[in-house]
């Protein structure tokens, strides 16, 4: 109870994309900085305005140095559902908390921010003039003020039904902006080395934040591809390492993915990507390796494992194998040929991944990965389970009308023992998820049906 008395209230202005990912990101980052998520609001839904209780302004600033889901944070001085309620709330805010920012030697400006409505300049000035009762003693400076204050008005989420008056009005002192500019500066469109499945920059940073990646961590990606997830982790000061079964991708060889380019250039590789962003010092190595047969000595090496396994859509699900492993009943290869790779069922891939994470993560380390699902059949019981790993969050990103992928975040809570390696096979989660081994067929059956439907409607 004593902690509650020391908490200050802050207003977070959230971005209106990746809505399901926002709350787990904020919770993970607050936990990273030694705080916890405390709020009087029961649910956030799609609203861009969140009121949080945070122990200190330093933690609020650290939060904004990491988040890509939040635009800005404000020290909340007052709020209400009408101007009168707002003014009453502001008059009840302790004057001693205002004075340090309103003294005669200070400079300030007041901004008006509206969500889902545009105000005229005259309306904005009217709102600013109405705040004259506040004890401002400094000078107005519109270009380089020492302190910025904001009135934020919420007109709901429906652009087709904008109310005359706002649902909520907030007033606060601006503290800091989030890291939204990273989405543009790290855009895949500008990246030196890309592939068919290079991860969107915004999602890469969200995954690193869900994984609580921090300075001097060691972060591993067993399905590294072109290294997009390594870049996001390295940006936050972690040392990065990866493996992939594809020799050409690891070494930057073969056909280029970029339009109007036939072959990859001599310096088109993962290391060059990190060099592009000034992050090469965080690059440990990337090796050609099979995720189903990890070549690691037993031990805990990684603070986080962050990965995007192949789903069999743009990239095939493969593992190394020999002729002996080919199931009977299919056409045999010539005796002189040993197949480079065999099919790798999705359920096997994810259970191997969980086992590997349970063995190699430090206690408290996190596994963050994407799980593809066929939406009509999905239930939470299908998420793979492991006795050493605790589910932290499960967020959906829709891929099509019938498919999605879910960002799963798990934390290691128990030391790995040999008996844990197969205990997940006794779980109720095994059989449901094995049905998703046919995810590729279900994905393309939906595409085929949609094309047929479109063709039929065009002929009518």
Automatic annotation (TrEMBL):
It is found in: Cytoplasm. Pfam families: Tmrp11_N, UPF0020. Its EC number is 2.1.1.214. Keywords: Cytoplasm, Methyltransferase, RNA-binding, S-adenosyl-L-methionine, Transferase, tRNA processing, tRNA-binding. Its main location: cytoplasm. Residues 190-320 form the Ribosomal RNA large subunit methyltransferase K/L-like methyltransferase domain. It catalyses: guanosine(10) in tRNA + S-adenosyl-L-methionine = N(2)-methylguanosine(10) in tRNA + S-adenosyl-L-homocysteine + H(+). Residues 9-180 form the tRNA (guanine(10)-N(2))-methyltransferase TRMT11 N-terminal domain. Part of the heterodimeric TRMT11-TRM112 methyltransferase complex; this complex forms an active tRNA methyltransferase, where TRMT112 acts as an activator of the catalytic subunit TRMT11. Catalytic subunit of the TRMT11-TRM112 methyltransferase complex, that specifically mediates the S-adenosyl-L-methionine-dependent N(2)-methylation of guanosine nucleotide at position 10 (m2G10) in tRNAs. This is one of the major tRNA (guanine-N(2))-methyltransferases. Belongs to the class I-like SAM-binding methyltransferase superfamily. TRM11 methyltransferase family. This is tRNA (guanine(10)-N(2))-methyltransferase TRMT11. It comes from Galeopterus variegatus.
């Amino acid at each position: 109870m004593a902690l509650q008395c020391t908490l200050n209230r802050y207003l977070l202005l959230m971005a209106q994309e990746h809505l399901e990912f926002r709350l787990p990101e904020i919770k993970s980052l607050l936990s990273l900085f030694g705080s916890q998520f405390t709020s009087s609001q029961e649910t956030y839904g799609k609203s861009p305005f969140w009121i949080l209780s945070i122990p200190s302004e330093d933690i609020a600033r650290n939060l904004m140095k990491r988040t890509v889901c939040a635009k800005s944070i404000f020290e909340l001085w007052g709020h209400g559902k009408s101007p009168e309620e707002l003014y009453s709330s502001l008059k009840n805010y302790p004057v001693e908390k205002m004075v340090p920012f309103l003294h005669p030697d200070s400079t300030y400006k007041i901004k008006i921010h509206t969500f889902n409505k545009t105000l005229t300049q005259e309306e904005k000035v009217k709102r600013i003039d109405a705040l004259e009762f506040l004890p401002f003693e400094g000078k107005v400076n519109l270009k380089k003020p020492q302190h910025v204050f904001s009135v934020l008005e919420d007109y709901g989420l429906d652009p087709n039904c904008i109310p005359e008056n706002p649902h909520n009005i907030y007033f606060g002192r601006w503290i800091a902006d989030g890291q939204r500019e990273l989405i543009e500066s790290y855009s895949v469109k500008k990246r030196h080395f890309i592939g068919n499945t290079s991860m969107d920059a915004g999602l890469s940073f969200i995954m690193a934040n869900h994984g609580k990646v921090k300075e001097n961590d060691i972060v591993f990606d067993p399905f590294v591809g072109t290294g997009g997830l390594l870049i996001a982790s390295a940006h936050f000061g972690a040392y990065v390492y990866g493996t992939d079964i594809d020799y050409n991708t690891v070494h930057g060889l073969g056909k280029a993915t970029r339009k109007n380019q036939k072959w990859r250039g001599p310096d088109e590789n993962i290391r060059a990507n990190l060099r592009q962003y000034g992050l090469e010092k965080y690059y440990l190595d990337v090796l050609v390796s099979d995720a189903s047969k990890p070549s690691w000595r037993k031990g805990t090496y990684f603070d986080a494992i962050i990965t995007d396994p192949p789903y069999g859509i743009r990239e095939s699900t493969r593992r190394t194998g020999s002729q002996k492993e080919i199931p009977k009943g299919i056409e045999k290869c010539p005796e002189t040929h040993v197949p480079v790779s065999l099919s790798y069922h999705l359920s096997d891939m994810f259970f191997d991944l969980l086992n590997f994470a349970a063995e190699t993560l430090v206690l408290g380390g996190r596994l963050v990965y994407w799980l593809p699902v066929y939406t009509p059949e999905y239930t939470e019981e299908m998420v793979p389970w492991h006795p050493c790993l605790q589910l932290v969050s499960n967020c959906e990103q829709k891929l099509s009308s019938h498919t999605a992928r879910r960002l799963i975040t798990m934390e290691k809570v128990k030391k790995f023992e040999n008996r844990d390696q197969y205990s997940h096979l006794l779980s109720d989660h095994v059989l449901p998820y094995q049905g998703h081994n046919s995810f590729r067929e279900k994905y393309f059956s939906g595409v085929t049906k949609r094309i047929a439907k479109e063709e039929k409607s065009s002929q009518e």
